[in-house]
Write a structure and sequence with these properties.
By secondary structure, this protein is mostly beta strands. It has an eight-stranded antiparallel barrel. The protein has an eight-stranded antiparallel beta sheet with strand order 9-10-11-12-13-14-15-16. It is globular. The chain starts with 8 loop residues before the first helix and ends with a strand.
Length: about 200
């Protein structure tokens, strides 16, 4: 289900248009066996460009955890590996019980044509010890990153642009009064900044 138009929806569409229009060679990749563990990882959904989908695999079972918007609840779906695809039970989100997503090694494609491209492991939700009641959600594809957050439940949302550099990200904190290109180093389970602050990953 596509999100209803809200304030800032146009900016989300602009980000989506920029990010998902990038050349993506994986779309032409051949079928891959989803059961070999390659399916596991972080994905983006063009219908929800400020959210994320995290896929984990155990045997022939898959778990998909995601958010459609940074400030929306986290949801979880169960799936079953089926050759080079995964049958996902979308009923918790109001969808069908066994929707087949075909995995090609670089993304998952659904019957309606929607495709979740696989993206950097840095994508996901984080907490910030300096703002324990807030949140940070990082999305990224190719060399573009977007960080959306709020410092507290009653604080306004902000968004920051970033540029990927390997597993790390250069973030423009100037909208929050910080430096323009602050390097955040991804250590596999969190993002570490030069001042020692670390955002642990929570999804």
């Amino acid at each position: 289900v596509k999100p209803q138009a809200t304030e800032g929806h146009a900016s989300r569409r602009s980000f989506a248009a920029g990010v998902f229009a990038l050349p993506f060679v994986g779309a032409m990749a051949g079928a891959a066996d989803a059961a070999d563990g390659a399916l596991a990882g972080e994905y983006l959904d063009p219908n929800h460009p400020r959210g994320f989908r995290t896929v984990t695999v155990s045997g022939n079972k898959a778990t998909i955890v995601g958010k459609d918007e940074p400030d929306r609840p986290t949801w979880k779906l169960n799936g079953e590996i089926d050759g080079n695809g995964v049958l996902i039970d979308f009923r918790p989100k109001g969808g069908p019980p066994n929707l087949l997503g075909k995995f090609d090694g670089e993304g998952v494609t659904f019957p309606d044509g929607n495709r979740w491209p696989k993206t950097a492991a840095i994508v996901g939700e984080y907490s910030d010890p300096n703002h324990p009641d807030g949140f940070r959600v990082v999305t990224a594809l190719k060399d573009q990153a977007l960080i959306v957050g709020a410092d507290g439940p009653k604080d306004a949302q902000w968004k920051l642009a970033g540029k990927m550099s390997g597993d790390n990200v250069l973030i423009d904190f100037s909208p929050k009064g910080g430096p323009k290109d602050l390097l955040g180093k991804f250590d596999g389970s969190g993002i570490v900044f030069p001042d020692g602050n670390r955002w642990p990953k929570v999804n």
